[in-house]
Write a structure and sequence with these properties.
This protein has one helix and three strands, in the order βββα. The chain has about 110 residues and is of the alpha+beta class. A three-stranded antiparallel beta sheet has the order 1-2-3, with no helix packed on it. A hairpin with a 5-residue loop joins strand 2 and strand 3. The longest helix is centred in the last third of the chain and has 44 residues.
Length: about 110
């Protein structure tokens, strides 16, 4: 599990964010990643000062678009790295004469 918190120094629309990555093994020895996150809007800035309406605008204007794109790109990067490591390990084992079945590396 990885946990991170960001508190921004410059006052802006976001007061802070918290994110957690939870890694678990799947039945086929792969990796399932659960990414949870939370943002606290600055209630003294737009859109936070709009209350629930501001929360909605933040979600549809940022979370569902820009942040969702960042999330997909990050998870794709994790997958690419894991698959690259699998291929590197397979090549090394073939060179060493080891042909046993490999299980995916845990990222």
């Amino acid at each position: 599990m990885w946990f991170g918190t960001t508190r921004l120094k410059k006052p802006g629309p976001i007061s802070y964010s918290v994110g957690t990555f939870l890694y678990s093994e799947t039945a086929d020895h792969g990796t399932h990643i659960t990414w949870t996150y939370s943002f606290e809007l600055n209630r003294n800035r737009f859109p936070g000062y709009l209350g629930g309406v501001g929360d909605f605008l933040f979600r549809v204007g940022f979370l569902d678009r820009q942040y969702a794109e960042l999330m997909r790109g990050t998870l794709d990067g994790f997958k690419t790295t894991a698959e690259s490591r699998d291929q590197s390990e397979l090549s090394r084992r073939k060179e060493d004469g080891v042909f046993e079945k490999m299980t995916p590396l845990q990222v």
